[in-house]
């Protein structure tokens, strides 16, 4: 994924959420609808999350230092994990708390502004739809033939999966709010508003858990994709390199891959020939997989007792 594409999706989502948050909160002040308050906080949390993703991307671009010799690429994973915590606490738990309060006092809407939440929700659906469309468009550049579920599970750059899930949750949350508000207006029973708020809370908690699980895997360190491993294997074997004894890969960041391999060389090869074979193999790997920025190759004499293996990759 290009960083620019991820940033475009983030900025589109941030612009939509800031505008929507103001309108939702205004609707809450006029009607005291718990669904509108939950959706207001949801939009505020999403806006904060998008700012966190932008900060993470900026911090990840810092140059490597003696203390962090492999750079700061994983900052993007850390900030994406913080996003899941914010979504869970500020968004999901707050909405569930509001639903609990409304269940104990299920009053209808106050004042003559009963129509405002409907207008705001319909307008918010349009704005969120544009944001979601941008996220889908940018994701399609790198998704390839993967399903959307597989894309979220296997993407190495966290920004687009996060924005996709947030926008999808935002649209579904708006439908839940519209459900609760409409039935409250029709029946005068605030219990429907409480139900809509509870559905929003459960939705946000579920999305936060999915984000936390997927980002945790990235934080622990994931190997290269199957396609990249295959390309690296093909590039390593060449003049002076008879075969791969074993290979391990690790993402230092979304666009930075560490490659470590033990390669088999001829037992009669000189030190100069081995050094040239290693340098040539590194060039071939970088040409085949440009994100392979850090490469360590260890030459060895292959024997039948050694087992050739590669790093398992995620399905």
UniProtKB/TrEMBL annotation:
The keyword Transcription does not apply. The keyword Membrane applies. Keywords: Membrane, Transmembrane, Transmembrane helix, Transport. Pfam families: Cation_efflux (PF01545). GO terms for biological process: zinc ion transport. The chain crosses the membrane at residues 6-30, 77-100, 112-136, 168-188, 194-213. Residues 10-220 form the Cation efflux protein transmembrane domain. Its main location: membrane. One of its GO terms (molecular function) is monoatomic cation transmembrane transporter activity. It is a multi-pass membrane protein. It comes from the Bacteria. GO terms for cellular component: membrane. This is Cation diffusion facilitator family transporter. It comes from Psychromicrobium lacuslunae. The lineage of its organism: Bacteria, Bacillati, Actinomycetota, Actinomycetes, Micrococcales.
């Amino acid at each position: 994924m290009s960083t620019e594409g991820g940033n475009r999706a983030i900025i589109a989502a941030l612009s939509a959420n800031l505008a929507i948050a103001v309108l939702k909160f205004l609707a809450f002040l006029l009607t005291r609808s718990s669904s509108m308050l939950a959706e207001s906080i949801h939009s505020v949390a999403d806006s904060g999350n998008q700012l966190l993703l932008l900060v993470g991307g900026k911090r990840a671009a810092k140059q490597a230092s003696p203390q962090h010799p492999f750079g700061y690429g994983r900052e993007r994973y850390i900030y994406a994990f913080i996003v899941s915590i914010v979504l869970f606490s500020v968004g999901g738990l707050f909405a569930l708390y509001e639903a609990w309060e409304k269940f104990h006092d299920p009053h209808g809407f106050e004042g003559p502004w009963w129509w405002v939440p409907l207008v705001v929700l319909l307008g918010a659906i349009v704005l969120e739809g544009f944001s979601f469309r941008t996220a889908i468009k940018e994701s399609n550049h790198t998704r390839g033939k993967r399903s959307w579920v597989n894309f979220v599970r296997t993407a190495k750059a966290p920004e687009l999966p996060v924005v996709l899930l947030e926008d999808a949750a935002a649209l579904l949350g708006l439908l839940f709010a519209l459900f609760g508000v409409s039935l409250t207006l029709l029946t005068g029973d605030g219990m429907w508003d409480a139900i809509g708020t509870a559905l929003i809370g459960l939705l946000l908690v579920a999305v936060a858990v999915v984000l936390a699980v997927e980002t945790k895997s990235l934080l622990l360190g994931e190997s290269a994709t199957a396609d990249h491993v295959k390309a690296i294997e093909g590039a390593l074997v060449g003049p002076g390199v008879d075969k791969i004894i074993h290979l391990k890969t690790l993402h230092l960041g979304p666009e930075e891959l560490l490659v470590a391999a033990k390669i088999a060389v001829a037992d009669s090869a000189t030190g100069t020939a081995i050094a040239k074979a290693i340098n040539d193999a590194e060039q071939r790997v970088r040409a085949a997989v440009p994100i392979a920025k850090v490469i360590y190759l260890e030459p060895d004499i292959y024997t039948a007792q050694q087992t050739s293996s590669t790093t398992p990759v995620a399905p």
